[in-house]
Amino acid sequence: MYRISLFVAAACFVQAAAARDLGDEKRGAEIFARKCASCHQIGAGAVNRVGPLLNGIFDRKAGQVEGFRYSKDMLRQGADGLVWNFENLDVYLENPKALISRTRMNFRGLKDPRDRADVIAYLRRFSANPQDIPEAAPTAFPQEVELDPEILAIEGDPEYGEYLASECLTCHQRSGDDEGIPAITGWPAEDFVIAMHAYKEKKRPHPVMQMMAGRLSNEEIAALAAYFETLEE
Amino acid sequence: MTLNRRKFLGTAAATAAALSAPMVRAQGKPRVVVIGGGAGGATCARYLAKDGKGAIDVTLVEPTRKYYTCFFSNLYLGGFRDFESIGHTYGKLAADYGINVVHDWAVGIDRDARTVTLAGGYTLPYDKLVLSPGIDFIEGSVPGWDISAQNEMPHAYKAGSQTQLLKAQVEAMPEGGTFCLVAPPNPFRCPPGPYERVSMVAHVLKAGNPTAKILVLDPKPKFSKMALFQEGWANHYDGMIEWIGPDFGGDKVEVRPDTMEVVVDGEVTKVDVCNVIPAQRAGKIAAIAGITNDKGWAPVEAFGMQSKMDENIHVLGDSSQQGDMPKSGFSANSQAKVAAMAIRGALLGSKVFPAKYSNTCWSLIDTDDGIKVGASYEATEEKIAKVDGFISKTGESADLRKATYEESVGWYAGITADMFG
Ligand SMILES: Cc1cc2nc3c(=O)[nH]c(=O)nc-3n(C[C@H](O)[C@H](O)[C@H](O)COP(=O)(O)OP(=O)(O)OC[C@H]3O[C@@H](n4cnc5c(N)ncnc54)[C@H](O)[C@@H]3O)c2cc1C
User: How confident is the model at residue A233 (pLDDT cuts 50, 70, 90)?
Assistant: First the structure.
């Protein structure tokens, strides 16, 4: 009796999953490139950037990618057993903060269910079974600004960075908590430098950040990047 | 100095620290006394202790055990925050940063002997003194009002029981009654503060007492974010708010707390609630120290917020007269970090980097309708000078306004963590 009912339940689940529109991978790839790829990499050779790499996300517990510094809330959810399946990803992508209130993922969400289904279909390609990871280059990190390699190569002075950072910490919480203002603690230095130059060149719109970045020299930006990369909570 | 020092130390943790090495500690380390545990003082004490890594003996003098932030106190009036969410204690500053937190009033400063006297009778010696005592009111600036009338006509411009009182009065207003706000002349703390308050009171009245009226009496022809507030008032509270500037007698106001009347250019009006925000000057202790000017503010140089009258005193926040920065919590916090660096440089010889200052003031007009204004500043020989700035625009999308409000919530969490650890 017991076995049979289990079997029936499993069969129902398969049916439900099959009935669901799995989404259009191709369209998902385009949405991913526009909305996700500035922080996340996926595919062969993907590494952690501002956000964790997304290979193998399906059926993984939340907060498990090695070497990535998650918010406390994300870690707690993982410990409580949150697993990334279709339903949870769908809820999370609709409004990340509704599921995990202090997640560091500063993203307003994909409101259109079709967009979400498409992105999830795309993510699935790099998940579930190892053979699904294609031998493609990782999604390129879109360069928001053309930066002279010399600028990216500047070694920041963390001591100067610590002083300069005191100005950032009026709004960006040192703990990395994100409440209406994105977390910047633990960002890779290169991403930090690119983001700051994007504000400086007014390619990113936020007026406070344009003003703050606008008066920082290349050395000062490098110093801040060096500091925030290594900042311990 | 060691006389009974531990008697007035604020917490058990601080007491234990002082007991373990009393003499050496008192004699060997440079001593900084910070007066006022608000936006400027708490931040400065924390950065001195944190970055001084134990090499500086930091004492913070603050009479209240719980500091209620003025910032977001208007949101409490509007029902967007509960009272306890704007209260902060000093436990972490003492326990995690080793700051001696002394809950007392500073009542005297001897600049020659370099000592501070407390109301409790103790004397604290200092090598450097930081003053961040906020504001006090100028007596007689609103005829008919003095501090003894603050129960009938609250100012609610220092947060705490005054803010609670004002909220209770707004909630008890008779149907169709009148709320009057007497706005202060420049300069005063938080330039958009009175107008955000008007918005929050309107929000409460619109929900529970929609025929009530709001009367704003203003001695200034223009105020901060004026176009944005006026647009918001027309959008959300059409017909409820009447603003009377100096052209119509907003600068000739007398109040009568006993009869709850306001007299505008000779004409008497009966009101139900009257929020009087008087003209302001530096916190009294700055005048007692003898470092204020004829306008009642404490002039400072721009590179480290050092008093122009005493090189061993730094003045932060509202009390200081520094140049172009508005008197805000954000400004005080920004100035505190520059001053802490300058003081560490002077006492420990640590590196001093160029001063950078900034400010952003968010205001809430109605649910999810947030606006902001901000600027960055640099130190010049003459003053702290504005470099660059921005302001929200009229006609912005609802999404952007909502994001702006959410940002302010993030800022509040950020700045209070930066102040109190
Ligand atoms: C309604 C309102 C809304 C506001 N909104 C904002 C906002 O949204 N954003 C913003 O940035 N700013 C805002 N402000 C302004 C902000 O609150 C002040 O500018 C800021 O608190 C100034 O910091 P401070 O350190 O100079 O003084 P305070 O923060 O007032 O701190 C002074 C402290 O000194 C203590 N003190 C005074 N005298 C003595 C003494 N003799 N001995 C010992 N201690 C003493 C007091 O108890 C007090 O705790 C607002 C203000 C008001 C009134």
Answer: low
CATH match for B5-136+280-420 among 3.90.950.20, 3.50.50.60, 3.40.50.720, 2.40.128.260: 3.50.50.60
Nearest CA to ligand 1 atom 5: B71
Structure confidence at residue A20 (pLDDT): 52
pLDDT tens digits, B230-252:
999 999 999 999 999 999 999 99
| Domain ranges for chain B | 5-136+280-420, 140-276
For each of the domains in chain A, give its residue range(s) and CATH number, in order of start.
Answer: 23-132 (1.10.760.10), 149-230 (1.10.760.10)
What's the CA gap between B158 and B141, in Å, rounded?
Answer: 17
Residue located nearest, by CA, to atom 29 of ligand 1: B38
Closest alpha carbon to A92 in A132, A69, A126, A63: A63
Per-residue pLDDT of B41-56, as tens digits, reads 999 999 999 999 999 9
Beta-carbon neighbour count of residue B96 at 10 Å? 14
CA-to-CA distance for B414 and B172, rounded, in angstroms?
Answer: 34
Give the rounded percent of residues in chain A with a pLDDT score beyond 90.
42
Nearest ligand 1 atom to alpha carbon B106: 42
The strand pairing partners of B202, in sequence order, are none
Determine, for residues A172 and B414 on separate chains, whether the beta-carbon distance falls below 8 Å: yes
Mean pLDDT for B267-274 is 98
Give the tens place of pLDDT for each residue, A29-86. Answer: 999 998 998 889 998 888 899 899 999 898 889 999 998 989 888 998 898 889 998 8
Q: How many alpha carbons fall within 13 Å on the CB side of residue B294?
A: 0
What backbone phi and psi angles, to 5 degrees, belong to B104?
-165, 170
Whether residue B360 lies within 8 A of chain A, CB to CB, comes out as: yes
Q: pTM score, two decimals?
A: 0.84
User: Cβ contact (<8 Å) for A166 and B47?
Assistant: yes
pLDDT at A132 over 80: no
How far is Cα B196 from Cα B362, in angstroms, rounded to an integer?
9
Geometric angle at alpha carbon B388, from B384 and B393, rounded to 5°: 130
CATH of domain B140-276: 3.50.50.60
Domains B5-136+280-420 and B140-276 share a fold: yes
DSSP secondary structure, B376-390, as one string: EEEE-SSSEEEEEEE
CA nearest ligand 1 atom 13, residue = B71
B85 in contact with chain A, both atoms CB, cutoff 8 A = no
ipTM: 0.81
Residue B233 Cα to ligand 1 midpoint, Å, equals 27
What are the residues whose beta carbons fall under 8 Å from the beta carbon of B346, sequence distance 6 or more? B128
What does the alpha-carbon distance between residue A2 and residue B50 come to, in Å, rounded to a whole number? Answer: 62
